[in-house]
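B., you asked whether I could sanity-check this one before it goes into the benchmark set. Here's the sequence:
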Amino acid sequence: SLMRSRYTAFVRERGDYLQATWHPSSRPAALDFEPGTKWLGLEVRRHRLTGDDRAEVEFVARYRVGGRAVRLHETSRFVREGGRWFYVDGDIHA
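And here's what the prediction gave me:
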């Protein structure tokens, strides 16, 4: 559910929510959104626990910017601290 809510935050350009759900160890100081981006959909391909408080989510997010279609395929890593899940980082698939 965190993956889906973060996708929605990208669609709505809610940097505050993205920052709040990003683990402090890897959180960027600021976020920039690409002007004119039109998000087209999110497909969560798989998710799995990798430890008691760690998980991975593989997803594909599709969007269009400047008339060009883009497909972002990533395996994201999450950690749970204090009962809350946070995005840590991810590996982008070519």
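One thing to flag: The first helix runs from residue 2 to 11. Otherwise nothing jumped out at me.
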